[in-house]
Every structure is written in structure tokens, then in C-alpha cells.
Amino acid sequence: MKPKTLGELKKSGYQPRTVKEELRANLIARIHAKQPLFEGIHGYADTVVPALERAILAGHSINLLGLRGQAKTRMARSMVQLLDEWMPVVEGSELNDDPFAPVSRYAKDLIAAKGDATPIAWMHRDERYTEKLATPDVTVADLIGDSDPIKAANLKLDYSDERVIHFGLVPRSNRGIFVINELPDLQPRIQVALFNILQEGDVQVRGFKMRLPLDIQFVFTANPEDYTNRGAIITPLKDRIQSQILTHYPERIELGMQITAQEARSPQEQRNRVQVPELMRVLVERIAMEARESEFVDRKSGVSARLAIGALESLISAAERRALYNKEASTRVRIGDLFAVVPAITGKIELVYEGEQEGPEKVAQHLISLALRKTFKQFFPDPSPQRRSATRVDPYAGVVAWFDRHETDLLLESDAPAHAAALSAVEGLEALTDLAKGAFPEDERPLWMEFILHGLAEHSRIGRGSLSAGMRFGDVLHALLPDKEEDAEDDADEGAGFSGHR
């Protein structure tokens, strides 16, 4: 049973410690127990996490600097788990006063009046986290505090009495973690108000001769200064933030897939109805990776992990919609469903001038094409015409020859039997799936057959055109006729353009 008075707390042997001491001690305990610092954060084990551990062990204030969608806020929130589960405070204290070292006038007066009978309350660690999004309208009063005329009138106090102070978010976060997101957005004159507390550990409220020695772990998040045009971290404040840690996007596609699968939110009913093959998860992640490298996308802005998450959710929904209209109890995501994720891409990429000229939808389709093209080469022999030679057998020759004489339509809303039948009608297509690197379930064979068609179209071996309700595959020359010169340039540029058959 937790002590309820100051006297009981003294008898319990409780020893207070600062927030940074708590974080340090509990981190050391986790390291000894071989427990991870964060749950659900992938790709930082060898980069960001060691730097953050060093900062906590050193007792530093921290700035997490990186592009959007790099889990900066999530890491800041997760630091709460390094605090002690429960912490004693003077009951009724606005500043979470330590019973052994009170800082507020209220707590000091209460302890002076009641002594060991001073009532004690207990705060859970989840209550010791405060987060503020920096916006241009944030004031010093919001963060630090100011005199409150209403409080003065209600308590009939003179304005010189410190009891009329309305404390801001920073003092009320005493003995906890305080996070400011998007720090560069904070006006320079407001950033100045943070100098003292970062350097000296105390805060001064305007108009009062008082100092509050606060105990706070500060964590800031920011985008690189060369990205945000709304402001910057002023140099004196940057100098006072002791550790600046750079975050980054997943370096491997497997890590990106882990993050996307973990963060995607789909209703249980939808998950039961729609199967998502591993190939489709790879393609979704490849789209995000291509966007981060694209010449049409502003790299300084970054491409959030939310693009892949939204794309996967849209992909699943497209398959579910088809199943609902066809009254199918279950379905599987198809390659053609990828083109339904365009709306999930267009709102999450900032385009440079060249991208604006093309338009966001064309850029999104281009990213999907690049993802198909590059992923296809990972699983199948390169079908590029320049890769063929007189001595090398072309495994795709039979299918390409079939399309010289035939066409096939893959409709987005067709049911599973009709979709499989359309693919099976292509002579030699099913046999090509045996060339795939790695095994796949037999019931996914139609998916891989469709993947081969899109792969051949991306490498200009067969033609692909858009229908109002799907895709038509046929002779590549027919697709090239409307603009042969432009498409030839596109082929030479590894798909950098936007041709009619791509």
C-alpha cells in the first residue's frame, strides 16, 4: 500500500531522484535485462537507438532531427516507459511537487502548515508526459505562464502575489518529459524563453521575482532546417540542446514492410476477407522507396512511411470492394489493384517543378511502373530487349509471339474464376511462373501470371493500355504507334517518362 502522508513516505525509505536519473537507471536495467529500448520501432537498432541510449545515459536534452514519417514522436512518447511507474507528489500541487523538495508556493505553504501530515498523491508515469505542437501562435504565456487577472479577482489577491500566476505547460510538466514537436515552427522570440530552463534548469515568470528550479527531460523534434520554410531553430537554443540525433527512413525493403504491416489499420472483417500476398507487400514498399529517390519528388520534403501504409490500406480496400460486388466470401489482392492506390500517393508527395509539370497522378503512376519494373527483375530473368543475344534463349518469346496475334483484357472487377480464365488463355504464360526465384503458394499462381504480363509491358515486350474498367494487353507495336518517338526515348531512359503503354 502506497504512503498517503509525508510522514509515511519518510518511513517507507523512499528516495527521490530526478527525471534524468530515473531514465538513466531504468535504461541501465533494461540493458542488463536485454530488453529493447522501444517496442514496434524498426530499422534503428544500429543507428538511432544507440545514439538515444547514449544521450539518456549522459542526461542530455534531445533533438530528434529528421524528415516526416520517421517515428520521431513515437520514440519520444515511448521514453515514458523508462520512468518509474509511480511517483509521489504533494496532493493538489499544480507543479507535481516533490514532497522532499517542493518548488511551488502552494506546496511549501502546505508542508509548513501540516508537516508530516501533508497528504501525498501518486502519479502514474503516463501522466508525466506532455506534448506540444509548435505553431506560430504559441506564446510565452502558453509555455511558461503569466499573471491571471481572473484568479487574482477570485482570490482577492494583489497582482504582486505569486499565487495569481497561471503556470504554462513547461512548469506543469515538472518531474516529467516535455516534448515540443516541429520546433522550427516556434517563433524565435518564443524559443528564447527556453534558454534558461535548458541551461540553468529554472524558469522565471514575467513580472515576478521568483525562480522555479524545474526538473524536466526535454525532447524536441524537427525537420531539417533546409526543408522547412516556416522557420529555424535559433543558434543559441540549438547550442543548449545537448544531443541532436538524426533519424532516417528504412534502409532495407524488409524493414519498411515490417513497419507498414504493423501500422496499417484494417477492420478484422476486412482482414478475414482479403488475403495480401507477400509479393504485393513488396510492391507497395517499393513504391515508397522509389518515391524517395524520384527526380519528380522533393527529397528535402521526404516521403513519409504513411505513404506505404495508406497504399496498403487502399490496396486491401480495392480488393474488398471487388469481392463485395461479386458476392465473394474471400478474395486476394491483384497486381491491377495497385493502380487503385494512386489517391493514397498523390497527397503524400511534394513535387518539384518537373513533377508539377507532369501532374501528381502521372507521377504516382510512374512510381507504380518503376516499382513493377524493378521488382520484376528481382524475381525473373531480365526481359529487356538489349539483354537478349543470339546465343541466349529468350524464355518470354512464346508469350510475346502470342500477343502478336491476340489481346487479353484483365478487368478490375472480374471475379476470381473469370480473372484466372483470362490469364490461362495466354499460351505459355503459366509455364513462365516456374522461372520465379523462390517458392510461392500454388493458389497464388494467377497473381504471378498477371505479374509477368505487367513486367513484360514495363520492359516494352508487350503492349499495355488502360480500359475504363481494367487493362488490355496486346501487341507492343500497336501501343507504340500513337507516339513512337516519345516512347522510344522513355525506353532508353529506363522508364523515366510517361508513355501510353506504361
List keywords for this structure.
Helicase, Ruva Protein, domain 3, alpha/beta, Rossmann fold, 502 residues, disordered C terminus, 13% strand, three-stranded antiparallel sheet
Largest sheet geometry: 5 strands, parallel
Average of per-residue pLDDT values: 88
Number of strands: 16
Kindly estimate the percentage of residues that lie in beta strands according to DSSP. 5-15%
User: So what's the overall shape?
Assistant: elongated
The CATH homologous superfamily name of the largest domain equals: P-loop containing nucleotide triphosphate hydrolases
What number of structural domains do the residues give? Answer: 3
SS element count, helices? 24
CATH secondary-structure class of the largest domain:
Alpha Beta
- Fraction of residues in H or I helices: 40-55%
Could you say what the CATH topology of the largest domain is called? Rossmann fold
Q: Report the CATH architecture of the largest domain.
A: 3-Layer(aba) Sandwich
Structure explained in plain terms:
With about 500 residues, the protein is of the alpha/beta class. It folds into 3 domains: about 5-245, P-loop containing nucleotide triphosphate hydrolases (Rossmann fold, 3-Layer(aba) Sandwich), CATH 3.40.50.300; about 250-380, Helicase, Ruva Protein, domain 3; about 385-500, no CATH class. Helix content is about 40%, strand content about 15%. It has helices at about 5-10, 20-30, 50-60, 70-80, 105-115, 140-145, 150-155, 170, 190, 195-200, 235-240, 255-265, 270-275, 280-295, 305-325, 340-345, 355-360, 360-380, 395-405, 415-425, 430, 445-460, 475-480, 485-490, and strands at about 60-65, 85-90, 120-125, 130-135, 145, 165, 175-180, 200-205, 210-215, 215-220, 245, 275, 330, 410, 465, 470-475. The strands form 6 sheets. A 5-stranded parallel sheet has the order 4-7-10-1-11, with helices on one face. The chain has a 3-stranded antiparallel sheet with strand order 14-16-15. The chain has a two-stranded antiparallel ribbon with strand order 2-3. β15 (about 465) and β16 (about 470-475) form a beta hairpin. The longest helix has 21 residues, at about 305-325. The radius of gyration is 30 Å and the shape is elongated. The chain starts with 5 loop residues before the first helix and ends in a 10-residue tail after the last helix. Mean pLDDT is about 90; it is low at about 480-500.
